[in-house]
Amino acid sequence: MLLTLTTTHRPATDLGYLLHKHPDRVQEFAQSFGTATVFYPEADEARCTAALVLEIDPVRLARAFGRNAPDFTLAQYVNDRPYAASSLLATALADVFSTARSGRCAARQDLADSAIPLQIAVPVVPCRGGPEMARRIFEPLGWQVEADPIPLDPAFPDWGPSRYLALTLTGTLRLSDALSQLHILLPALDESKHYWQGPDEIDKLFRSGEGWLATHPDRELITRRYLGRRGGLMREGLARLAEVGDETPEALEPSAEEETALPAARRPRLNEQRQEAVVAALLASGAISVIDLGCGPGALLSQLVKQPQFRRVAGTDVSVRSLQIAARRLHVETMSERQSDKLQLFQSALTYEDARFAGFDAAVVMEVIEHVDPSRHAAVERVVFGTARPGTVVVTTPNREYNALYDGLTGLRHADHRFEWDRAQFREWAEGVGAAYGYSVAYQGIGDVDPGLGTPTQMAVFTRE
Q1: Domains in the chain, please, with CATH?
Q2: pLDDT score, position 157
Q3: Residue 437 and residue 417: Cα distance in Å, rounded?
Q4: Average pLDDT of the chain?
């Protein structure tokens, strides 16, 4: 993969300061999927060009992904990744030019804060939607776009164009803005993500999109395509975008195009499997009233309110914004009186006693405990198991051991996680809580099972004795 970045600002060699890469050197940067190289084909006072070349190791990439690969079978080995700009190039660009993307340059800060003439060339980029889509995405940001379709085979012109473009962008922008836009829009052109997408994918989108995404006329389209049309991520991303852009609630719903783009039979995503497992455990408990402690934007609540067995459902979260998104997702304003009587949303924190937590047959603490500092676990345990004391408590949390199967994942799965337990640590915690507060505990794994590493999510069902 190749991307070149050229400026005619004088002196043009100041580009080396802005990129924090010296024009006289060839520098290599190791990536989990290959090697990124930066060099300058030309560098003088009038014109300077920096080239980023990403060499993919297809076999290493396929071995690293294993069964978690976005593609399947032979497509893991026979594909366009070594040649066509994609999400992998965007990932390498964000890593190699991270300081430039932040807009920091101690040697030339005034220049880093200024718009300069830029030309960005990507010889081969996959683009679903052709030249019109490229222009639709880049032109509102001030770029002059040249998007030339690449023939499927020059020897057979009747076959028509391929899905690839030779893309050239020309404009006058801050370098940091240009790099941030490329980080988001290269994957949006392709619509495919070639690595594991974690919960922080939405945070990446809004960090790189700060200052331009919320005002882009096709911001919803970009959000959907950047997130690979992954249902859960896409809905949360659109909800975040709606909060920033003050969109209507309908913006949270998938479009007809998205619905038809989904295959008729597909493998459930982990968050869907997690919700299904939690709902099944609650139904099996016989509970008729349920509270979701740390409900977030209401994904689980939307499933709970559909169950006739649950006559009373409540959701609580420390984040007001999450509760607002949950209310919009659940269409609280247009609910019937009967539905409205069944549902309650309120703000509260799990580390403090709240009389509203009590009186429920069952409580859910789904993907919440890992966001709480271990020093405050005793307070959460006392509030949930000691004071609220429902008959059933369902707790889910990531299994740290399974992280080894996620290629490109370093550290914890989410930037806000305070820790992640392995299976033995989770059982030790659960057994201790059960013994202290009079609950028996049953365990279940959620997601694909690895013989040595278990499942990505672990669940404990506490039953009051």
Answers
A1: 2-196 (3.30.1610.20), 270-464 (3.40.50.150)
A2: 84
A3: 26
A4: 85
